[in-house]
Design goal:
The protein is an alpha/beta fold. Helix content is 32%, strand content 17%. It has 17 helices and 18 strands. Helix 4 packs parallel to helix 5 and helix 6 packs parallel to helix 7. The longest helix is centred in the middle third of the chain and has 18 residues. The protein starts with a helix and ends with a helix.
Length: 555
């Protein structure tokens, strides 16, 4: 709306609405109306938009005053524009329709406007990043505008977006806020890498709905500021999950009101976690908490030694609680209930891996108290594996009551049990080294949905113990795909739809092996390679050398 119109008194609002409608009609008649851009987004037709005189830039006609349309700008006879080339971004855009034109460059006098108030946060963020003015929800059209809009298909992928660069303006639209946000990330990278966005239309969407980084903050505590820096990095790369493994044998790293006795001295306060979660939400990243059980509970056992699991020979199983004791389940459920309020995202990891009782050669002989509890619960044929599966199902029930999608590590799913893991438990597949290991296809053939944490490619284990080696971005970029769940061989393509995506995991086995800064530097290229293959699992267009060069250019 023009400065002149804004000065009208309230009793002339009707005239203002008529004026805006007339202005929209004029632009639509020219084939470049905002509605047309968002709906068609094909960049294939339409004249260059009318340009206002400098003194009237962005204004609309006022009642009783005629504002002549300016002729569409055309290149001088001596200048033509080559056909544009696709943006160079990480991850690469899936589709770009080229066009001839000057493209778009940000200017501090240009505006970011939104068509929908829900996009205010996205608009303010990109405006600040590009040094532009955020002008809020506006219906008028000005040269240099970046417009964010919801639309483009009922029921469409909410992470998809269309970005149209035409006539000196940019329109980013999508069915959901996340997709529009990703469009702003593409624009930011274009400007950072090339100084401008190329003319044409980008249509983009991820191949996989789960694109994550998991941090083991239990064994190696990270500062809140460091975690927030990773969230900003993840957002710019179009990741949508951050896993926090905050309970293990070495520490419990988040403040607790239900069981303050288990919290380590070096921990995050709930206020810090809320700030982390809020920043993640602003980047459309879900924080996925994990309290691993019934193993990896050493920090809990340290405060409750009566819960430790002791063998018939008197040996204490490290980190494992005695699941025959009701108090063990009660403490874990207390924590799950408490942190459901702190982590409002719709996802949760229950852990379930490496329970020491089931890693014994003869579990029933080694832990007779567990065998007795299994018989009491499931009859004479009940096993300790049944008891552990029942434990996992009970914890799933606690979290499910908070309306969360639940996952557990693949070695928490035991073969041959009479008690079956809950049907909605997703498999976080990381290893094929466990006792009684099963191939990924076994889970897929049973209908399970899976998330790829392949430890041969996606595990960054501090100190490199147990034959782990720091993963290289090049190996991920050139060899790995979401279908490569175990080792280096992909599962059959028919299972692709059951593989939700993947997560790059940072584990703190030897926490002092690297500083926070070294971890950030070490995972930089692996993160970029991983998201490229999650966004588009096909063979990348760039060589690894070109990809590295682009990453350096984009920062």
């Amino acid at each position: 709306m023009s400065q002149h119109s804004r000065k009208h008194s309230s009793h002339k609002r009707t005239n203002r609405r008529l004026v805006v409608a007339a202005a929209f009609a004029g632009t639509i008649a020219l084939g470049v109306g905002v509605g047309v851009w968002a709906a068609t987004g094909d960049g294939s037709s339409g004249d260059t938009p009318a340009q206002a005189r400098p003194s009237e830039a962005g204004s609309v006609a006022s009642p009783g005053r005629s504002t002549p349309r300016q002729p569409s700008p055309t290149p001088s006879p001596s200048r033509t524009y080559p056909l544009s080339t696709a943006p160079r971004t990480i991850p690469a855009v899936r589709s770009h329709t080229p066009a001839r034109g000057p493209g778009w460059r940000p200017a501090h006098t240009s505006r970011v406007v939104v068509s929908d108030p829900e996009l205010a946060d996205e608009g303010k963020l990109i405006a600040g990043e590009l040094g532009m003015t955020y002008a809020g929800q506006r219906g008028d059209v000005r040269a240099g505008d970046v417009r964010l809009a919801l639309g483009g298909g009922e029921g469409g992928n909410p992470e998809s977006y269309t970005m149209t660069v035409r006539g000196g303006r940019v329109v980013i639209s999508g069915p959901g806020e996340a997709g529009v946000f990703y469009g702003t990330r593409t624009l930011k990278q274009e400007v950072r890498g090339a100084g401008a966005a190329p003319e044409g239309v980008v249509r983009d969407a991820p191949a996989k709905p789960v694109r994550g980084l998991m941090l083991d903050i239990a064994r190696k505590p990270y500062s809140a500021g460091w975690i927030e820096d990773r969230i900003r990095e993840l957002g710019d790369l179009k990741y949508n999950e951050l896993g926090l493994h905050f309970s293990d044998d070495q520490g419990f790293r988040i403040e607790s009101s239900s069981h303050p006795e288990i919290v380590s001295t070096d921990h995050l306060t709930k206020a810090q976690v809320k700030q982390i979660v809020q920043l993640a939400q602003s980047r459309h990243i879900t924080v996925v908490p994990e309290i691993d059980s019934p193993g990896h509970l050493g920090a809990v056992i340290a405060a409750h030694p009566d819960l430790k699991l002791v063998s018939a020979r008197g040996t204490v199983a490290r980190g494992a609680v005695d699941i025959s004791k009701d108090q063990a389940a009660q403490i874990v459920d207390d924590l799950l209930d408490e942190y459901a309020g702190l982590f409002p995202g719709g996802k949760w990891n229950l852990g379930g891996d490496e329970y020491q009782a089931l890693m014994a050669r003869n579990p029933e002989a080694s832990y007779p108290q567990l065998a007795a509890a299994a018989h009491d619960a499931y009859g004479a044929s009940g096993t300790i594996a049944d008891l552990a599966t029942g434990w996992l199902n009970d914890r799933a029930g606690t979290v499910r009551a908070h309306d969360r999608a639940i996952r557990a590590w693949n070695d928490g799913f035991y073969a041959g049990t009479s008690v079956k893991p809950a049907g909605d438990l997703q498999v976080a597949y990381w290893t094929g080294k466990e006792i009684g290991a099963r191939q990924p296809v076994d889970y897929l053939a049973a209908g399970r949905k899976m998330i790829n944490y392949n430890d041969a490619y996606l595990y960054y284990v501090l100190g490199q113990p147990n034959q782990f080696f720091y993963p290289t971005g090049q190996r991920i970029y050139e060899q790995w795909t979401p279908r490569v769940l175990r080792g280096s061989q992909p599962v059959p393509a028919r299972y692709d739809g059951q593989i939700l995506g993947g997560t790059f995991a940072v584990w703190g086995d030897f926490p002092n092996a690297q500083t926070q800064a070294q971890v950030a530097a070490g995972i930089r290229m692996p993160l970029r390679a991983t998201v490229q293959k999650l966004w588009d699992p096909g063979a990348p267009a760039l060589s690894w050398t070109q990809f590295k060069s682009l990453a350096a250019q984009l920062g």
